[in-house]
Design brief:
With about 110 residues, this protein is of the alpha/beta class. It contains 4 helices and 4 strands. It is globular. The protein starts with a strand and ends with a helix.
Length: about 110
């Protein structure tokens, strides 16, 4: 059973990494780490010391204004696509970022 963990920032990845390891140790659960692209490169860097890697990246169009509303508008359809492809049993988000908001709305 897949459990999707959504991170877009370094702090989110650091806090979700222990959960990913615990899920991986469970015989019936598999963590699926998804990067929103909010802070490119930071999530991968944070997961590396844990021996973890990103399983999927959200395909978010480049932002023109850089505003949070534009980011949410790009994240929601991209997240919907990843959720349809992976069909996880649960989606876990952590934090107070735009990525977390989009994950909660999905």
């Amino acid at each position: 059973m897949d459990v999707m963990l959504l991170a877009g920032t370094r702090p989110e990845a650091l806090k979700l990494a222990p959960l990913a390891l615990a899920l991986d140790a469970h015989p019936a659960l598999r963590p699926v780490l998804v990067h929103s692209g909010q802070h490119p490169g930071m999530v991968e860097q944070a997961l590396e010391p844990f021996g973890l890697a990103v399983d999927a990246w959200l395909d978010v169009p480049p932002r023109v204004t850089g505003g949070q509303a534009e980011l949410v508008a790009g994240l929601l359809p991209a997240l919907d696509d990843v959720l349809r492809r992976h069909a996880p049993a649960a989606l876990v988000v952590q934090g107070d970022t735009t990525t977390t908001l989009a994950g909660a709305l999905a």
